[in-house]
Write a structure and sequence with these properties.
mainly alpha; 2 domains; two-stranded parallel ribbon; 5 helices
């Protein structure tokens, strides 16, 4: 991978989580291979799913919008694992930034 692709590895070694890698497989395979990233899922019987993921994708709080499954999964897992979301889609994430919403 080029130098630009390694910024996340340098900032968060071993802490990168990839949500469903079907369309990103070629880009993240190296991270997975060397242990710099992992693939995880949201279990249905967890707070990450019941409280946050479902709320974000189906029944948002008043004043909020329904968002996509990928964005919702990122937010739910970041909250569950006290993580950080890296995205180029700031429009959605700014709505749900860490402000107790």
């Amino acid at each position: 991978m080029g130098r630009n692709k390694n910024l996340l590895v340098k900032l968060y070694p071993g802490r990168i989580v990839i949500l469903g890698i079907a369309h990103l497989k070629a880009r993240v395979y190296t991270f997975l291979l060397v242990g710099q990233a992992q693939v995880i899922s949201i279990d249905v019987a967890t707070d990450a799913y019941d409280i946050l993921y479902y709320q974000l994708t189906e029944k948002p709080k008043a004043g909020h919008i329904v968002i996509g499954k990928g964005e919702a999964a990122s937010i739910a897992l970041a909250k569950q694992y006290d993580g950080i979301v890296a995205s180029n889609n700031l429009k959605v994430f700014l709505i749900y930034r860490s402000n107790g919403s």
